[in-house]
């Protein structure tokens, strides 16, 4: 759409021939899709524009619809205006119910859920690259993309899991090798993939191969790094994961409902269906919902206990200070009437999180909308009827998870004695004695321990 009229003019015949000569013909073992692309390129279609070309390339991508298989005859009885609303509502209830069940299974189930969503989102993004850049025939690209996904996960999650589960891993010398040389192994795995990519370069396809190499790394940045931060949030306590996720879900649902019933004023051109009425209604609903849900769950140890070690019951812990009732001094002139108020700190923390979820979180969706418009597609996939692909539903969640992780490290996180002890136990016995003597001396000087 942004191409100038000059850019949309057909290329001179001489230039087209030089481009065709510089691009060698693919081999005969390519897919029918590649043959279709080649026939389009070689045909005499001077009026074809860039928009039409991209549209043809992306037609093969699965797109979301309101089809529900065997239930289609029932859905067809619903008026067309309400059909998408009904299908989205049904699958929203199904997804929320399934998510609630997984939450009840504990942190490990949530980690597996995040991994599963990560893999599917990566698959949806990589599929767009495969189609748009017409490289079904390029050697090793698909396998190399998934190899980088596995390597990135090993790098990001290896150290995090080691920090929390190091005491148990310490008992196995083989695992100790993986711990001691984790970053070296990660770098070695990446270099192996780097050399693999260089050796796979094919003359005439350099630009396409390097474009897809960059595409893969952007997908890793958007998906793997942010899913890693989300899992780190789970380690701080399920509530730090559950409340932000629920806020995004609430904002999405309420924005859709307010926009559906009362929306008239367009909000942003990237998403023509988004309205100011839906945006404001979703924001107000999210703030109220966040306060109510936070107050309802913060007294349950299952949700607030940090995941220190999978061998320890996370429902039996010392409640973190953010979830303990505290007194706060009220500013004047309110303080003249009531000087102090008792409040759970997490209630206050839920306010900036809900504001981010409702005011800035939607921009993750707008970013995804711009991405889809760039490639002339409606959805990232078709796995969820009425919603599209998983990336269509979790674009805002990734951005929200990153904000919560930054918020925790900025305002919440304090040194963790259990984590420090885990790191000390990894040291040699000589270094442990040095730490012991130094700590004993400091405690004696402070008068906490009697002199020897």
UniProtKB/TrEMBL annotation:
One GO term of the biological process aspect: phospholipid biosynthetic process
Chain spans, region Disordered: 1-49
EC number(s) recorded for this UniProt protein: 2.7.7.41
Compartment annotation: Membrane
Catalytic activity: a 1,2-diacyl-sn-glycero-3-phosphate + CTP + H(+) = a CDP-1,2-diacyl-sn-glycerol + diphosphate
UniProt pathway: Phospholipid metabolism; CDP-diacylglycerol biosynthesis; CDP-diacylglycerol from sn-glycerol 3-phosphate: step 3/3; Lipid metabolism
InterPro entries, per database record: PC_trans (IPR000374), PC_Trfase_euk (IPR016720)
Gene Ontology CC terms, in alphabetical order: endoplasmic reticulum membrane
Transmembrane feature ranges: 85-103, 109-133, 145-168, 180-200, 212-232, 238-263, 275-298, 346-368
Compositionally biased tracts (Acidic residues): 29-44
Recorded topology in the membrane: Multi-pass membrane protein
Entry keywords, A to Z: Lipid biosynthesis, Lipid metabolism, Membrane, Nucleotidyltransferase, Phospholipid biosynthesis, Phospholipid metabolism, Transferase, Transmembrane, Transmembrane helix
PANTHER family: PHOSPHATIDATE CYTIDYLYLTRANSFERASE, PHOSPHATIDATE CYTIDYLYLTRANSFERASE, PHOTORECEPTOR-SPECIFIC
Family, per entry: Belongs to the CDS family.
Protein name according to UniProt: Phosphatidate cytidylyltransferase
Species this protein is from: Pristionchus entomophagus
